[in-house]
């Protein structure tokens, strides 16, 4: 009996799983599948926090029970539900009223202000994906509750840094070009939608946040009808845009950006634009965060079928687990459109091949091997 009591802590420790099983249900401390989709992790004081879309469960009609979910963990495997970090506001005068859509939330810690700042893709109630706005919220505590500040279209009235004077001038008849015609595609690459959205602000759909090594933070979003990514610099307090922004991979239809810095270069996983359906993954590289970015093709190393759907996932974040040693975790979503809560989390270790990150399918893998 005494021996059993003495050995119990070791036994419990030995039981602690370090296994990641991509695509399976992932129960939290209450036994419920982790409801944090299109999300990202943030490490704070030794603990990992996972923020993501908290989707209504099938049959759940209470639309006030919706927003950004937060979970905490010390080991990346067992997660404690910290509840909704941001919740919709039950007031029809608020843009964040029930019925609106909140996607791909990300949180940064601002060491100058001591605040946590959350940005998210925000679509307005009853408008489908038309609004293409980004929302911002703030909190003193990492797990929230976050206070909603506002939603906007970024960079109204300013041109991208990497835009020529020629591109600032409209081409006669450009707004009536036939979508997907060669002339239209060329006009899009040359900034057709940047010009269209100049006054009202640029579109902001799929998004991520990234803090560069010099402390500057960027809001990276699919703009220009999802045709071009914009890397938009945030103000020092991370609560607004400075108006400096860069067009990245113009006209190449990238979504789901997930950035990381490794081996002296910036890498970015993205997807194409096929809605909830997965498509071939994409990798891009740059020497500076503001570009030039170069597309390098599909980072997946599986069967043709697996590569064509990124192992059934769409990128959302890359966790720098031990960046000096090149250890990163790819995180993606396997969406279940008719039951988004049930969407699965696809976490895979990033592997390296000729200095470039690649992904291979693993039915299960052990975090212990990636420290
Ligand atoms: C995807 C996007 C998701 C969601 C979905 C809606 O392309 O990455 O975040 O917006 O479209 O159809």
Molecular structure report:
It is built from four helices and 23 strands. It is mainly β and 371 residues long. It has a domain at 28-152: Tachylectin-2, Chain A (5 Propeller), CATH 2.115.10. It binds beta-D-galactopyranose. Beta-D-galactopyranose is lined by residues 38, 103-104, 206, 255-256, 273, 275-276, 314. Beta-D-galactopyranose binds at residues 38, 103-104, 206, 255-256, 273, 275-276, 314.
Topology, pairings included?
Elements: H1 2-15, E1 19-20, E2 37-44, E3 47-54, E4 67-73, E5 80-87, E6 101-110, E7 115-123, E8 133-139, E9 147-152, H2 182-189, H3 192-196, E10 207-211, E11 217-223, E12 228-234, E13 241-248, E14 255-262, E15 265-271, E16 282-286, E17 294-297, H4 304-308, E18 314-322, E19 327-334, E20 344-349, E21 351-353, E22 356-358, E23 365-366
Antiparallel strand pairs: 1-23, 2-3, 3-4, 4-5, 6-7, 7-8, 8-9, 10-11, 11-12, 12-13, 14-15, 15-16, 16-17, 18-19, 19-20, 21-22
Task: Point out poorly predicted stretches.
Answer: 8-14
Briefly note the CATH topology name of the domain at 28-152.
Tachylectin-2, Chain A
Radius of gyration: 21 Å
Largest sheet: 4 strands, antiparallel
SSE topology string: HEEEEEEEEEHHEEEEEEEEHEEEEEE
| CATH superfamily heading of the domain at 28-152 | Glycosyl hydrolase domain, family 43
Name the CATH class of the domain at 28-152: Mainly Beta
In oligomeric terms, what are we looking at?
Answer: single chain
Global structural class: mainly beta
Q: In CATH terms, what is the architecture of the domain at 28-152? A: 5 Propeller
Bound molecules: beta-D-galactopyranose
Please count the helical segments: 4
Q: Please give the order of strands in the largest beta sheet.
A: 2-3-4-5
Average pLDDT, all residues: 95
Q: Let me know the number of strands.
A: 23
Name the beta content range. Answer: 35-45%
Cα(first) to Cα(last) distance is 36 Å
């Amino acid at each position: 009996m005494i021996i059993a009591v003495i050995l119990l802590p070791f036994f419990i420790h030995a039981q602690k799983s370090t296994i990641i099983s991509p695509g399976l249900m992932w129960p939290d401390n209450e036994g419920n599948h982790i409801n944090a989709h299109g999300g990202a992790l943030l490490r704070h004081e030794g603990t990992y926090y996972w923020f993501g879309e908290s989707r209504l469960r099938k049959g759940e009609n209470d639309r006030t029970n919706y927003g950004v979910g937060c979970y905490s963990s010390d080991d990346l495997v067992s997660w404690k539900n910290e509840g909704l970090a941001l919740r919709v506001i039950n007031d029809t005068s608020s843009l964040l009223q029930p019925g609106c859509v909140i996607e791909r939330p990300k949180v940064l810690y601002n060491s100058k202000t001591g605040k946590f700042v959350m940005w998210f893709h925000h679509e307005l109630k009853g408008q489908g994906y038309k609004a293409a706005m980004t929302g911002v919220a703030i909190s003193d505590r990492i797990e929230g509750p976050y206070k909603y500040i506002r939603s906007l279209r970024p960079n109204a009235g300013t041109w991208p840094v990497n835009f020529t004077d020629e591109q600032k001038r409209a081409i006669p008849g450009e707004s009536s070009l036939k979508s997907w015609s060669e002339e239209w595609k060329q006009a899009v690459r040359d900034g057709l939608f940047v010009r269209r959205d100049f006054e009202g602000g640029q579109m902001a759909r799929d998004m991520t946040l990234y803090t560069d090594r010099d402390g500057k933070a960027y809001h990276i979003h699919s703009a220009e009808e999802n045709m071009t990514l914009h890397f938009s610099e945030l103000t020092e307090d991370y609560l607004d845009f400075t108006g400096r922004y860069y067009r990245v991979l113009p006209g190449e239809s990238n979504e789901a950006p997930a950035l990381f810095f490794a081996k002296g270069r910036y890498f970015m996983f993205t997807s194409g634009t096929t809605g909830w359906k997965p498509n071939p993954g994409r990798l891009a590289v740059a020497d500076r965060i503001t570009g030039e970015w170069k597309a390098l093709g599909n980072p997946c190393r599986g069967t043709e079928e697996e590569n064509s759907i990124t192992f059934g996932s769409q990128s959302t974040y890359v966790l720098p687990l031990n960046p000096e040693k090149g250890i990163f975790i790819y995180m993606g979503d396997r969406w279940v459109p008719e039951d988004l809560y049930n969407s699965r989390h696809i976490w895979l270790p990033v592997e390296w091949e000729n200095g470039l990150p690649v992904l291979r399918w693993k039915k299960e893998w052990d975090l212990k091997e990636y420290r």
